[in-house]
Amino acid sequence: MSAIQVTGLTKRYGELTAVDDVTLSVGEGEFVGVLGPNGAGKTTLLEMVEGLRRPDGGQVEVLGEAVWPRNPRLQPRIGVQLQASSFFERLTAREQIRTFASLYGVGGAIADEWLERVGLTDKADARVEDLSGGQAQRLSIACALVHDPELVFLDEPTSALDPQARRNLWDLLSSLNDTGRTVVLTTHYMDEAEVLCDRVAVMDHGRILQVDSPAALVRGLDAPARITVAPGSLGAEEAAAIPGVAEASEGVDGLVLVTREPGAVLGVLAAGDHLAGVSVQTGTLEDVFLALTGREYRA
């Protein structure tokens, strides 16, 4: 059964079509990422799926229910962390999350547990306006999850977090998904999508360009591998003569060999005792993203 079924979804603002005839299905217990450059329509798409914004066309069903007009039966079953956090003024972090919890009939002890899970126990008595951007982001995520929703929407949840906090949040989100919850997130971090997502939808100009697992998208790109050999281990002319090497050039960390036959090239390097310090870089989700959406700057 689908947790989310989107069919022909469209949203216009004057002459701008922010979301253009999007169709997408998300299965129960699936972790799906929506990727795209700024202005691609990701946030507008999520807001319509969440029931926060009225579509101009198309249909959305979430957990078997229509989301528009606003459906109060869905609200206890979903959790939403918006791109911009809004809190009640002058409340402490503990008061904030306990207030959110009380709206769903959840006790204060569980709210306090969520503060601990996102690493904010030592900031429990700090007012929300005194929290750093990363701390406020973690509090926002805890407020979205405190009522144990079946379906979670996260809009760029790690954008203000330091690397350690990002990794800790990845563990938390993975554990939520492992217990059967459905998670949908938008992110600009390709490594985040590769680690967390079962599938990703790459979006641009209001349309979904491709949907598949990160590994399948990378395989479909057919990008060449780059093999870096330690400096002084091999000459450029000798490397260029290896069967399967399309290009050999000096890089920052050594000699870089570009090839679509990495296995064969590594076999030759091994036979010549040139494997010490070798590194291999294949195609990544970032390569897929750039191939689909281009490299030009976006506002």
From TrEMBL:
KW Transport (keyword) present: yes
Membrane topology (UniProt): Peripheral membrane protein
Keywords in alphabetical order: Antibiotic resistance, ATP-binding, Cell membrane, Membrane, Nucleotide-binding, Translocase, Transport
Location (main, coarse): membrane
SUPFAM superfamilies, alphabetized: P-loop containing nucleoside triphosphate hydrolases
GO cellular component, one term: plasma membrane
A GO molecular-function descriptor: ATP hydrolysis activity
Protein name listed in UniProt: ABC transporter, ATP-binding protein
Species this chain originates from: Nocardioides simplex (Arthrobacter simplex)
